[in-house]
User: Fold this.
Amino acid sequence: MAERKVCLSGSGLTKIYGFGRTRTVAVDHVDFNFYEGEVISIVGESGSGKTTLAKMLLGLTSTTEGEIYFQGQRRDISTQRKKLEYWKNIQAIFQDPFSSYNIFNKIDAVLLDCINMRGGHGFPRAKKVEMMTEACSFVNLKFEELTNKYPFELSGGQMQRLMIARIFLLMPKILIADEPTSMIDACSRATILDMLMGLRDEIGMTIIFITHDIGLAYYVSDSVYIMEKGKFVEYGTADEVILNPKEPYTKRLINDVPKIYEEWDLSTV
Amino acid sequence: MGKVLLEVRELTTRYITRFGESVYAVDHVSLKVEEGKSLGIAGESGCGKSTLALSLMGYYFAPLHYMSGEIIVDGHNISGMNPDDVRKAILGKEIAYIPQAAMNALNPTQKIIHFVEDVIRAHDPSADKKAIYERACKLFETVGLPPQVLEKYPVELSGGMKQRTVIAVSVLLSPKVLIADEPSSALDVTSQKMVIKMIRQLLHDGLVGSLIFITHELPLLYNVTDDIMVMYAGQIVEKGAAREAVFDPLHPYSKGLMGSIIVPEEGLREVKLTAIPGVPPNLKNPPSGCRFAERCKYVQPECIVNAVGLRSTEGGRVYRCIFSEKELREAYRNG
Ligand SMILES: Nc1ncnc2c1ncn2[C@@H]1O[C@H](COP(=O)(O)OP(=O)(O)O)[C@@H](O)[C@H]1O
Ligand SMILES: Nc1ncnc2c1ncn2[C@@H]1O[C@H](COP(=O)(O)OP(=O)(O)O)[C@@H](O)[C@H]1O
Ligand SMILES: [Mg+2]
Ligand SMILES: [Mg+2]
Assistant:
């Protein structure tokens, strides 16, 4: 196995919302090393702090304590310019794709923005169209049918694919996918997963996959981190964590998912 | 064979939108549910599962319209019944329906006991408060819910507790059929398991006569219901025992669905999930041939031209395809 290179790490990372009676420790001193080119899953129940962690990694919310290191350097997003520079490297797909778009922007504008962000302002129109067409065909969408449409005219699955087309154009080093398939059907789920994994192979991206679905985490990831009440309670390779869980919380998550090959034991609740 | 509590024959219903367009959401659906038994309805979103639920209760409020077919609830034919009468005579008592996201639709300013009173008084206007309270307490205890919940407001309950409360309140009148539409989809796995355990107990203890459970999550259905019916674009494409539907699907669409199952069990990582390419047809203008033809790996020229009927196997399974059981199995073996 080639040497694994850390691309994103955190130490003592903490987020506290509110104060006094409304004080919530959403993320509680987590430490991690995420390696380049891997798929890392973060699994936990709702409210365990997954989205808050994602937002800190993305620089969308401040950290209360702790540090984030990107490619070995302390992350610095103290100015707007540095932030934009950082966002060339790290991008996200969220659970509800509809929340991620400016509803007044047509779809070609959404994709055009991505090209511009990567320094394609000056490209001739034909070149831009070619890039957008390629991105759409990567996710099985037809660019000609999308131009002039607004994002809300698409179905949930189409929207999520459009999000992936954006990532195809943006080519970030790291993608954070926060519950990207939880709003879509089981049978479209496989398509979305295939596309994400295809993208990883295509541009060698690291994927941080956030999910409440431990089966999904098992299927897609190299490493799995289990999050309970803001803390990482267990981590390891997917096989270690899912087939040989050590923590009671991990065991419960696994036990409580409906099974088809083994007996699903209802007596535990 | 047990007593048939619900029988639906060739039920066809549609939405008529404000623009006069028709959406053919339920097309010639037949099903039967016997006492003590459960039927699961699977299929991707938009295939007509929720519409079928409303339709088979006779709940025809615009824009939903009854077209043809029969609905027989415990021996009584209710097809063509006025929907207001359905609401009075059928809902809650004969058939209890838990709509999708019901738990988030509870009026936040009312205590749980208030919903209980609503349900009971809808069928017995003279019922007194004390009797209602005692009846609710008894049921809550049976299903493992603390009776204190009755005095709480919806916001004071966690998601899982709220959903179990909604279910308990829905079955106060011991309905012959309980229809649960995606009752656990929004919950964490542990709460989901508690909901499932409770629903199975209701059926097992005879607190509901029979169960129809709707979800697109197959592993869940597999663990809850005796039979599974797979719907595609408003039609039944396959119906049979749960085990067969999951481990030996016949219709190419069911085959695709089963191939997308994800469970945290050994071996999953070696399996390649099958994705079904494409999207379902628009139900405003469904294709005249097989509705799945456009996405089907095994499509033949005649599939596109002619409507495809349901056929039955010797083992009592039903599916909609031009190919025989043997031909399908062979096709699947060859990939
Ligand atoms: N903007 C916010 N203000 C206050 N509390 C928040 C905010 N966002 C999340 N929380 C709280 O932080 C905790 C973790 O939430 P979240 O990160 O969304 O978890 P998850 O994504 O795992 O469901 C929860 O208790 C949630 O209520
Ligand atoms: N009120 C309505 N008016 C018009 N069409 C509707 C209405 N409700 C649902 N539909 C359409 O009917 C079809 C079936 O919907 P539904 O029964 O909700 O499917 P499912 O429950 O399987 O997701 C879909 O094409 C949907 O767009
Ligand atoms: Mg979240
Ligand atoms: Mg529905």
Observations:
- Chain A touches chain B through 41 residues (CB under 8 Å).
